[in-house]
Specification:
By secondary structure, this protein is α/β, with parallel strands linked by helices. The protein has helices at about 5-15, 30-40, 55-65, 100-120, 140-145, 155-165, 185-195, 210-215, 235-245, 250-255, and strands spanning about 15-20, 45-50, 75, 90-95, 120-130, 170-175, 200, 220-225. An eight-stranded parallel barrel has the order 1-2-3-4-5-6-7-8, surrounded by eight helices. The two termini are about 15 Å apart.
Length: about 260
């Protein structure tokens, strides 16, 4: 089964999917592998791997080692074309639609597309929308773009609708690593009601009850990353899994019908 279909089945069956983000630029290899193992044991549904300042040789080595220890799907969440590498199951083929820097709208995508094909990665076209979070994040700085104001759901909705019409499969609402504020539930609910695309929500989610609130607002996937920096975090994975997996979606058969 393709990774995208597996993720959709998970979201419908469990109410939402729990994605753990691993950043090789922030942590040592041994810690990342341990974190991946505990993510699987604790109930995560897939692993995202990527960051702002890492390169494909390091990514490939870490993915290879993680694959020897876990069975979860591994999806590249690239900060640029330099992070496209072999070994992963899929890649979020993102376009930073919230910005107006052509390099991250299409430039990096053109550079990375031949590699995605060469390496046989499943590409999941994803609209990446950066939302104001109370601090200037790494992605904002490195991409030379401005986030969408957190009190402007209509702007977010318009970008998500553009993503739908461009043929993208997912919308990623991102507060950013180290965010002070997570994505407002108002933005999630307004976007979920406006477009049929599944919504990924990440950045600044520190407590399981925050994750549940995002799911109840309409998020299909929750991404947790920095919250698992400490050692021995298996119980915390389980807490987040319990909060995110709220049970089968109502009208699951129709949930993403128009998005397919």
């Amino acid at each position: 089964m393709p990774v995208f279909e597996k993720l959709m089945e998970t979201a419908e069956r469990k109410g939402a999917g729990f994605l753990t983000l691993l950043d090789p630029g922030e942590h040592g290899r041994a810690n990342l592998v341990e974190c991946a193992e505990q993510a699987e044991q604790g109930g995560a549904d897939a692993l995202l791997i990527g960051g702002s300042l890492i390169f494909s040789d390091l990514m490939e080595a870490i993915i290879r080692e993680i694959k020897q220890r876990v069975t979860l799907p591994i999806v590249i969440f690239p900060g640029g074309s330099g992070q496209v590498c072999r070994g992963a199951d899929a890649i979020l083929f993102t376009s930073l639609l919230s910005g107006r820097n052509p390099e991250y709208l299409v430039g990096e995508q053109v550079k990375g597309a031949p590699l995605v094909r060469e390496y046989g990665l499943e590409a999941i076209p994803t609209a990446y929308l950066l939302i104001e979070s109370g601090v200037r994040t790494s992605v904002e700085y490195l991409s030379h773009t401005h986030p969408i104001p957190r009190h402007k759901p209509d702007i977010v909705k318009a970008h998500a609708l553009a993503a739908q019409y461009l043929g993208m499969k997912m919308v990623y609402l991102e507060a950013g690593s180290g965010a002070i504020h997570s994505i407002p539930e108002q933005i999630i609910s307004a976007t979920a009601a406006y477009v049929p695309l599944p919504i990924i929500c990440g950045g600044g989610i520190r407590q399981p009850e925050e994750a549940r609130a995002k799911v109840e607002a309409g998020a299909s996937f929750i991404v947790i990353g920095n919250r698992f920096e400490e050692q021995n975090h298996l119980p915390l994975f389980a807490e987040f899994a319990d909060a995110i997996h709220v049970g089968p979606r109502a009208n699951a058969d129709q949930s993403f019908q128009r998005a397919e």
